[in-house]
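Bumping with the actual sequence this time:
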Amino acid sequence: MGFFQFSTQSLCSNKNSEVSTTGNLLEGVNLDFLHWFSGFSDAEGNFLITLDREYIKFRFKISLHIDDVEVLNTIKSHLNIGRVTLEISRNRCSFIVEKYEDIKNVICYIFKSFPLHTSKRLDFENFYEAVLIKEKKNLSNADVERIIYLKGNMNSKREIFTYNITESQIIINPNWLIGFIEGEGTFGIKTGSSMYFQVAQKNTSQ
């Protein structure tokens, strides 16, 4: 996570680039940080929907090696939502958001305003549609069936995701790129001192 210390310093210093939302839930959060968070979430974030009978629960989660727990603490302190958990036996740590109001008003707001670019964008679109359905006071059977359908077409069941480049759908913000590289980038030295940089993705995000 070598870029993150630099990113944190620069993100906190730019007071002129801040965002506010309805209810001021993100008031004062730096725009550069939100671009970074979008890129990092494209690499490491997960959108989850669980159903227990008619009880529907939403979760946004980022899991990392325990050495990187301070990254998650920084995310939590910037967004002022969620919790950070430690799994010492597995050397893992996670940033988890489960409160419906935080999911709807903060997490969904961020990714609508600062779009994801990998196939995870399609997961978010399903997730977001289900969140909006859940806003209804009384869900019909058709509502529940729709959420089940949306859940069933997320994550590993994802189709190949392509952009129409001619319509300039991908706009890469430098802070998004830093976040994405921190999650998916690899720096290495091969035998014979040949250096390389690599970003690996499944073919769904080619």
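The tokens above came from a reply further down the thread. The first strand starts at residue 18 and ends at 19.
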